């Protein structure tokens, strides 16, 4: 593969989109999309519902979830075969993550009914903020909360493998930006006695400035890639075959609401 293959593919893909799978591909299946109220999650929800799936989205705020649900129903129209529902989830709160998974389990009728789970919720912050649990907020949401929900779902989905013909899918929305990290300083220098997670969550580590509008986003996605690797091992059965198929995907650069914190509070954007 040459250096130019990926950008050329991306450019061609923009003007000649890949054809959709045939209608009915997801008939009878249930797809969970974490963070389905806006942007890519909302688009994915419409996509899966159009292909026949019942779709469960999540939102932190009930009214936003209701609006998104209506938008999905309107976009798919009368041909819709599956249900659309919304559950409350705040990836920033451990309590919310665990309550969400309990509620999801009880809202579905059997262990094998979750076919695809897409962990898409994520944020960019322009200012250092501490989460309730004491970590930097971007890392709390994009890495820690997402990994916690991923692990809880994985345990449940693994247990359901024997009830299914094929493994269920657990998909993490990451970002190619995880490659843009200089991790050497994390292993050297005076701060090396701290854990890596503590270092990246500390105020000292925060690189934000006039030009850097998404500090900690890249590292949060890199740490997520590490936890996805760990979860992929946990997804294997005794014979080494995956009981749940785990993927990470990067959507490329797409105009969504992801920059809402930057748009309102970055010095650069407020010029
Ligand atoms: N757009 C891009 O160019 C791009 C590129 C690479 C990767 N990505 C990744 O794609 C994913 C979707 O991003 P997007 O661009 O579609 O952004 P978006 O429009 O801002 O959507 C983000 C979604 O995440 C949810 N969310 C945010 N904070 C949350 C929290 N604490 N708990 C639970 N849900 C939360 C939001 O839901 P509510 O606020 O309604 O609760 C929203 O539905 C993210 O993981 C992002 O990192 C995006």
TrEMBL record:
Organism listed in the record: Periconia macrospinosa
Pfam families on file: adh_short (PF00106)
Protein name: NAD(P)-binding protein
Keywords of this entry: NADP, Oxidoreductase
Lineage: Eukaryota, Fungi, Dikarya, Ascomycota, Pezizomycotina
Keyword Ion transport found: no
Family: Belongs to the short-chain dehydrogenases/reductases (SDR) family.
SUPFAM superfamilies named among the record's database cross-references: NAD(P)-binding Rossmann-fold domains
Record GO terms (molecular function): oxidoreductase activity
């Amino acid at each position: 593969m040459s250096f130019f293959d990926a950008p050329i593919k991306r450019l061609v893909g923009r003007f000649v989109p890949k054809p959709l799978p045939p209608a009915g591909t997801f008939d009878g299946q249930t797809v969970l999309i974490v963070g389905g109220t806006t942007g890519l999650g909302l688009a994915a929800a419409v996509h899966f519902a159009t292909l026949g799936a019942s779709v469960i989205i999540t939102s932190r705020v009930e009214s936003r979830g209701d609006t998104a649900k209506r938008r999905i129903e309107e976009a798919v129209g009368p041909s819709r075969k599956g249900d659309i529902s919304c559950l409350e989830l705040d990836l920033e709160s451990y309590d919310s993550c665990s309550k969400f998974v309990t509620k999801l389990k009880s809202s579905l009728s059997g262990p094998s009914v979750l076919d695809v789970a897409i962990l898409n919720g994520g944020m960019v912050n322009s200012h250092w903020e501490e989460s309730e649990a004491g970590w930097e907020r971007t890392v709390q949401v994009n890495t820690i909360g997402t990994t916690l929900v991923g692990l809880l779902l994985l345990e449940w989905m693994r247990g359901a493998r024997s009830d299914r013909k094929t493994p269920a899918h657990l998909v993490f929305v990451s970002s190619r930006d995880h490659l843009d990290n200089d991790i050497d300083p994390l292993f050297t220098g005076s701060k090396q006695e701290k854990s890596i997670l503590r270092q990246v969550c500390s105020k000292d580590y925060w690189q934000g400035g006039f030009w850097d509008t998404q500090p900690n986003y890249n590292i949060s996605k890199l740490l997520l890639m590490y936890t996805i690797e760990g979860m992929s091992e946990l997804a294997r059965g005794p014979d080494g075959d995956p009981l749940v198929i785990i993927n990470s995907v990067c959507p490329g650069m797409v105009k969504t609401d992801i920059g809402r914190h930057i748009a309102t509070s970055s010095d650069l954007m407020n010029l």
